[in-house]
Amino acid sequence: MSDLPPSHDYKVEPITCPVCQSATATVITHILDIPYYDDYASISISCRDCGYRMNDFMNLQSKPPTRMIYPIESEKDGRTKVVRSREGIVIIPELAIRIEPTGDGTTWIRNIEGILEDIQQKLSISLAYSETEEERNTVKARIELVEQLKEYSQPFTIEVEDPSGNSIILPVDETKLQIIELPVDE
Q1: Which end of the chain has fewer CB atoms within 10 angstroms, the N or the C?
Q2: pLDDT tens string 71-97
Q3: Which long-range contacts (CB under 8 A, 24 or more apart) does 146-151 make?
Q4: Is the Cβ–Cβ distance between 38 and 60 less than 8 Å?
Q5: pLDDT (tens digit, 9 = 90+) per residue, 39-59?
Q6: Domains in the chain and their CATH numbers?
Q7: Residue 144: Cβ within 10 Å count
């Protein structure tokens, strides 16, 4: 039924599709072994009938809301990876940019270069829709700054806030990663 390698870490189960209610959907769970972090599970749902797909990562242990801060100081730091959960917010203060989940939120894994590429694409779209000269100049300045950050010619910071505690930064240099427990909203 599956192309997955045989492993006790994978579990494949049929489910009812949350979109079309067909019985042809499956959920695949896989326990991930990520060094220095608790057990994370990769969860994928797909439906053969309507094509619905959803992927998510979650910590199997209850986590408090967190903010992780990692300084990017060199090209080596660019290999740092960010796993953003459905609720995670990625912030680059030097760009005054917050990448917030939209709709039902999506989980993704990207290295620093991938995050900067994504920001640059979105800024290019924003530039095309800018209505005033002031807006265009602001967006152009941010695009130029993204180019500098991609060359690692100046340091910058990557921050990830997550009320679920399920997002993580997988740093190149663990000693530079700061993790702050945030108060629980009630």
Answers
A1: C
A2: 999 999 999 999 888 889 999 999 999
A3: 146/95, 146/116, 146/119, 146/120, 147/120, 149/72, 149/92, 149/94, 149/95, 149/116, 150/113, 150/116, 150/117, 150/120
A4: yes
A5: 777 788 999 999 998 887 776
A6: 10-59 (2.20.25.420), 66-181 (2.60.120.1040)
A7: 11
